[in-house]
Design a protein that fits this description.
The protein is an alpha+beta fold and about 120 residues long. It has helices at about 5-10, 25-30, 75-80, 85-95, and strands at about 35-40, 50-55, 55-65, 105-115. A hairpin with a 2-residue loop joins strand 2 (about 50-55) and strand 3 (about 55-65).
Length: about 120
């Protein structure tokens, strides 16, 4: 299935790729190769889309839905954290008052550096 066909099977984007990774600490983790995925409450990018951070390019390889209850330590490590609990505490600190609900659906965006 082509990227275009795959993107047509997903719901419309709710935001633009420029808003996918914005926090300076997260930008640094992506550039250093410590963060290869990010989760959002909406879909911010299409597969094949390019994200530019500090003049470095990253391609979105995969976009899929997941619930918070499905998160594993491996997923947290892809986000740049050691454990799900560490990731959870960081997310809750960014969004005061937000509940952490295992059934809450998030959109996973996986990416890698563009090799030119």
């Amino acid at each position: 299935m082509s990227n275009q066909d795959l993107n047509h099977t997903l719901p419309p984007k709710t935001c633009s790729i420029e808003r996918l990774v914005t926090m300076p600490e997260d930008v640094n983790k992506v550039i250093e190769g410590k963060k290869i995925a990010t989760r959002r409450n909406g879909r911010y990018a299409d597969v094949g889309e390019i994200m530019v951070l500090e003049d470095k390019k990253f391609i979105v390889n995969r976009v899929y839905a997941q619930t918070l209850g499905e998160l594993t330590d491996e997923h947290a490590q892809h986000e740049g954290f050691e454990t799900v609990e560490e990731y959870k505490q960081a997310i809750l600190s960014y969004h005061p008052g937000m509940p952490w609900l295992p059934h809450m659906k998030v959109w996973v965006h996986e990416f890698s550096p563009v090799i030119e």
